[in-house]
Amino acid sequence: MKTEFGKFGEVLAKTRDTLERAARNIEQAEVRARQMARKLRTVEALPGEAAQQLLGTGVPEVPEVPEDAGV
């Protein structure tokens, strides 16, 4: 029983270390998110059409087909 309890303690310690590492990673991600949010506050909003052109997300223009094209 003493050996099993010792093994349990080792597993518990590894689990604690893993959780602490995960908590540090979350804290680092939060710091990065705050830095990005701070920088984004200084960005001005583009008009919708200009933003679509810049991002390439606008509705694609369909070329007109001449009436005599036989389509």
Folded structure, characterized:
It is a single chain. This protein is mainly α and 71 residues long. The mean pLDDT is 83. The chain starts with a helix and ends in a 16-residue tail after the last helix. It is elongated. It has one domain.
Q: In summary, what is this structure?
A:
This protein has 71 residues and is an all-alpha fold. It is 66% helix and 0% strand.
Helix content: 55-70%
| Total of domains | 1
Could you tell me the strand content as a percent range?
Answer: under 5%
Count of individual helical segments? 2
H/E topology pattern: HH
Q: Please identify the structural class as seen in this structure.
A: mainly alpha
Mean pLDDT rating: 83
**Count of distinct strands:** 0
Question: What would you report as the Rg, rounded to the nearest angstrom?
Answer: 29 Å
Which regions have little confidence, pLDDT < 50, spanning 5+ residues? Answer: none
What is the molecular shape? Answer: elongated
- Head-to-tail CA distance between termini: 85 Å
Taking the sheet with the most strands, its summary is:
none
In terms of topology, how is this protein built?
Elements: H1 2-40, H2 48-55
Name its key features.
71 residues, single chain
